[in-house]
Amino acid sequence: MSWSPVGGAAPATPPYAAPSAAAAAPARRSASRFAHLRSRLELPLARRATGLLDGRHRSILQGHGQDFDDLSLYSPGDDVGDIDWKSSARAGIPVIRRFVRQSNLSLVLAVDTGRTMAAAAAGGETKGAVALDAATLVAYLARDRGDRVALVAGDEERLVQLPPRAGTGHLELLLRHVERAYEVKAPPSDVGRLLARVGALTRRSLVVLVTDEANPTVAHHDALKTVCLHHEVLVIAVADADPFEAVPGTTRDVGDGWAVPAWLRGRDDVRRAAAAARARRSAERATMLRRLQVHDVVVRHTDDVVPALISLLDRSHRARR
Length: 321
What we know:
Layout: E1 3-5, H1 24-31, H2 33-40, H3 43-54, H4 57-60, E2 67-73, H5 85-91, E3 95-100, E4 106-112, H6 127-145, E5 148-154, E6 159-165, H7 168-181, H8 191-199, E7 206-212, H9 221-230, E8 232-238, E9 251-253, H10 268-291, E10 295-299, H11 305-319
């Protein structure tokens, strides 16, 4: 279940519709997302994240994927895994190996646009806001690399696919599609349908699935396994809010509108039981992802997006050595 306070934001413009005057304000917000992100992203972090994304080439593309270029002095933000220890010992200072970049990596953003993404996240924002920040960061890093980004976004009734292209204009269009899709009146989520479409893509790519912490479930195992046969998969999941916290107002499930009774909120026994159920679900999900060699991270707030993605890329990068 996903929860939202009563009296949330007004519905967005119809998802995936052509830009219009009514959609002008959301579009402008999307177009400025890169500038907003850049103001929050410190240069060493950006360089480290981009370097970790470079590491995908070694398996995504045929052959070694990267050709040695030269040696360079280490600077903050560089990947310590690229340090040439023998050269560093001879020089007396840290020296790293530089590689020729390959710019034909395709990256696929697979975005869940179901109504649960309009519910409250653990940090108090909507899950859609956190997910959109994550998608923006991935697109930003890909743009800086000159990589091509594709979009597959959908739910139970809607499915949109944009082909892989490079350039800021394409990425802004992609993010506007996602932004306008997040609304409480959206159809239910259908991650299985989303994965089936991604699994049909023939060009080997890095797939970043953006959804909430309830997904993917064990029911999605076969669809996810099919995707993993052709692509490398990373999962960014947004944490659900706790509906049993003692907070003012009424909390409802965005799926069926059921309201949490006031007498249930704030009770330790209820919160413990709910936490135990979530822990069991999380353990099942973690076991499935581990067997499929899929790395994931759960994000609570937009402030967590940058460090969470760097942690995700770092764990994946280390596992590939």
